[in-house]
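Listing S7. Sequence submitted for prediction.
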Amino acid sequence: SIPKILILDENFAVKNVWITTNAVSEEFFETYEKKKIQDEIFQKHGISKYIICISRWEPRKKQDLILKSYINLELYKKYDLVFIGDTTFENKKYNELYANLDNEIKQNIHTFEKVPFNEMLSFLRGSELLIYPSIAEGFGIPPLESVAAKVPTITSNATAMSDFDFLKKYSFDPMNQQDFEEKLMLALTIEDLELDELATALIQKYSWKKAAIAYQEALKTKKP
């Protein structure tokens, strides 16, 4: 937090800065039966083993990076690909890649918009891996929600996501296709993903309780 305070002080002449953390809603930490959820998703959507990306559609969200690697690594032979998120701006790179795919591959790619929260949560819990490849974020909450749900997660290390130090092993440069594909295959093949440890590290760094305590301390502190 010190660098953020210095930036505010030097560039904007802002004094008495207190940093409060963001956090993840309690629903994501709840226990669940993964197999049961996967069965429900298969019955409703015909989707079984899948990789997921939860993010609205914009070029900066880099869904095209996921699709390109999905093809390069021939992951369609083993996994479906699920995108959940409303469209803000068209991703032309993704559209071009998708348009040139064989229909046999297209049938393994699923896009959902206007998804209710509970259904989105079920999709997340039932997935084999969440990918978050965005190149710019104000914070980047979806990969943290995924970690809280104990779902294998890989995330971009650009801008705000660089603060997720406990995910460093599973972070990648979203402008580097090779780096992304290495982390993707690592998360899909490694046996011990340390899901419990990652969830614990998340709580220790980002929690509403921690944010509330910081806010309370700020309110009690008198201005000089």
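Caption to Listing S7: primary sequence and predicted structure tokens for the chain studied. The first strand starts at residue 50 and ends at 54. The chain has ten helices and six strands.
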